Amino acid sequence: MPCWYYEKKELRNTPSIQDGIDYETECRYRKEGARFIIDTGSKMDLGYNTMATGVVYFHRFYMFYSFKQFPRYVTACCCLFLAGKVEETPKKCKDIIKTAKTLLTEQKFMTFGEDPKEEVMTLERILLQTIKFDLQVEHPYSYLLKYAKCLKGDKPKLHKMVQMAWTFVNDSLCTTLSLQWEPEIIAVALMYLAGKLSKFEVVDWNGRLPKHLRWWDMFVEDVTMDLLEDICHQVLDLYSQANNAKPPDSPPMTPTNHANRENIVVPTTIDSASNTPNAGTPSKLPKIETSTIQPSNGCPSVDISAVDGTKPLEIPTHYPPYPTNFAPAPAQYATAVFPPTNISVPPPSVNAMNHIVSAMRLGPTPPIRPQPPTPSTAPQFQPYGYPTNATYFPPGNPAPPPPPTNPPRAYYPSQP
């Protein structure tokens, strides 16, 4: 299976950056796409796992393609459409497009082209090959609840900490943390951050052993404080960016001619993925006096009823809509650059052994099946020559004599 975790230097050398988009603008595009997926999914009553899976697909896709090559709102709809089928909460493509149209301005919706449904369906095949058909994605939500049930302490404070950590997990979807660290590490780091802000100190936990110095050592080994603080800083940066001034408009998209569109090739290998995670260069966490924090995506705190395992946690099934005073990012495209709808895309080829598929090129479709062979007039087998007469011995050779007739042996004496 492919590795989806990257070094920080690789995240600063993406196809978008190579295409002339600076790092800050790319981060804003990723944030806008993630929030658009959450907004659309919330309006369609999709679960949080479905929306989170769509966001992860979105981040992985743009590790191979530039934002100038594929408009982010078309890609976001495609990712949500695919995630709905993977998480068994499918929605019709036309319904997703209809909902997206209510959330976008007319100029942004122009990026969908003349036939939005065909644009999304065409991009779905490219998306599947780009993510190597690796559809199953794990999220920090399940690990957050699992770890919280093992902690001991004041129940109200523990509930408050879990609520805050859940909000941090929601907001982390707007960052590239899912491309840097495993969900277990993200869950531990955001629980650590929520514990600091809610003033909940973990003193004891279930299953504690003498070798466990901290509570997360029981679940994840070799996690340093510098690593946790680096993850916490990336989430806290979202709240400082939410209070900044209105971001500039998105630059106009560079039109792509028809010849270049036909040369789009889906990568068959992941060259920039790293097998070794990166701890980065973290710094110390600032001291925050407040005990509560407002989520950057407008989601209210989750009402957690219990974490002792006797009663299931009551978690929201979808994200609430963002408040009206939330600072939008009115990124606008001048012209649509998505490939025209009349390009026929061949069905993707799947290798069941390692999920690596061959490159797909937009162009004439090859024949799906080879032509059947021309039937031959020659018989398929030669008949066996059986004798025509009843005797199986050649002429001139007499048949063997019959066996001698011996009298039967008397096994028992004759009875008088």
From TrEMBL:
Residues 268-300, 365-416 are annotated as: Disordered. Keywords: Cell cycle, Cell division, Cyclin, Mitosis, Nucleus, Transcription, Transcription regulation. One of its GO terms (molecular function) is cyclin-dependent protein serine/threonine kinase regulator activity. Regulatory subunit of cyclin-dependent kinases that mediates activation of target kinases. Plays a role in transcriptional regulation via its role in regulating the phosphorylation of the C-terminal domain (CTD) of the large subunit of RNA polymerase II (POLR2A). InterPro entries: Cyclin-like_dom, Cyclin-like_sf, Cyclin/Ssn8, Cyclin_N. One of its GO terms (cellular component) is nucleus. Residues 269-281, 289-299 have a biased composition (Polar residues). It comes from the Eukaryota. GO terms for biological process: cell division; regulation of transcription by RNA polymerase II. This is Cyclin-K. It is found in: Nucleus. SMART domains: CYCLIN.
